[in-house]
């Protein structure tokens, strides 16, 4: 069967991060186990801990524990989240994709947000690592929050059917997030799945955006759901050929 006949139920989590890391993990585990019909579930950037730099070593240890726990329960679903992890002697913000009890893809944040002092605590990933990857024949790609602003990265992920954006994007730049995420969907003729934090100073604006630019967004909800019909990607790319 062509991948473009697939229909993929997706859940975008738009959540506040509680101070106790375990409570955040408990919610994620509960949602996964109670919503087995959802093929893709995406959490906001560093949802489990936020940027708790004061306790960064503890955060990194908890992240490893969380990955082990999630791998045990994740079967056919695709779960995406970012965590602060220790890489040798430095810390990185790492996106992980969990599927069939394994981490099938990982990508470290390349563009660190200097207004949030990320560069003072975290090591940047490598630009060349940002590229499409496949699961069950579907092409996915990942941009982490601030990376959405860089047009050269849009070029690197061309051809992806679904672009996933875990974010912790601030409220003062809310409009930028909404414009850029919709523009990416239209420009790259793909679905964009944006999961942003709902913390007090964050923008919310999580969205499921189609290749035509139509979107589902509601700042009042903890979860956004939509079934992605991949035929929309094929249809748009045939309708307006971009070469």
Architecture overview:
By secondary structure, the chain is of the alpha/beta class. The chain has a single domain, classed as Carbon-nitrogen hydrolase (Nitrilase/N-carbamoyl-D-aminoacid amidohydrolase, 4-Layer Sandwich). The chain contains six helices and twelve strands. The chain has helices spanning 21-34, 56-73, 118-121, 151-156, 174-187, 231-239; strands spanning 7-13, 40-42, 78-87, 90-99, 102-108, 133-135, 138-142, 162-167, 191-196, 207-209, 215-216, 223-229. The strands form two sheets. The chain has a six-stranded mixed β-sheet. Strand 4 and strand 5 (102-108) form a beta hairpin. Helix 1 runs parallel beside helix 2 (56-73). The longest helix is centred in the N-terminal third of the chain and has 18 residues, at 56-73. It is globular and about 50 Å long. The relative contact order is 0.17.
């Amino acid at each position: 069967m062509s991948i473009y006949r697939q229909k993929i139920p997706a859940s975008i989590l738009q959540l506040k991060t509680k101070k106790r890391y375990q409570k955040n993990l408990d919610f994620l585990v509960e949602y996964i186990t109670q919503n087995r019909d959802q093929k893709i579930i995406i959490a906001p950037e560093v949802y489990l801990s936020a940027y708790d730099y004061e306790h960064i070593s503890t955060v990194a240890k908890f992240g490893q524990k969380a990955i082990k726990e999630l791998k045990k329960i994740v079967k056919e679903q695709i779960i995406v989240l970012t965590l602060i992890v220790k890489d040798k002697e430095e810390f990185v913000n790492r996106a992980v994709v969990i599927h069939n009890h394994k981490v099938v893809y990982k990508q470290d944040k390349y563009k660190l947000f200097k207004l949030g002092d990320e560069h003072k605590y975290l090591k940047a990933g490598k630009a060349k690592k940002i590229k499409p990857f496949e699961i069950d024949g579907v092409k996915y790609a990942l941009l982490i929050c601030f990376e959405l602003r860089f047009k050269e990265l849009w070029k690197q992920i061309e051809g992806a059917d679904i672009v996933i954006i875990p974010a912790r994007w601030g409220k003062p730049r809310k409009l930028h997030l909404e414009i850029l995420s919709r523009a990416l969907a239209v420009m790259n003729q793909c679905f964009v799945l944006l999961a942003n934090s709902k913390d007090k100073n964050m923008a919310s604006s999580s969205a499921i955006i189609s290749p035509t630019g139509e979107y589902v967004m509601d700042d009042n909800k903890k979860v956004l759901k939509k079934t992605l019909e991949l035929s929309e990607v094929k249809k748009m790319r045939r309708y307006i050929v971009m070469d």
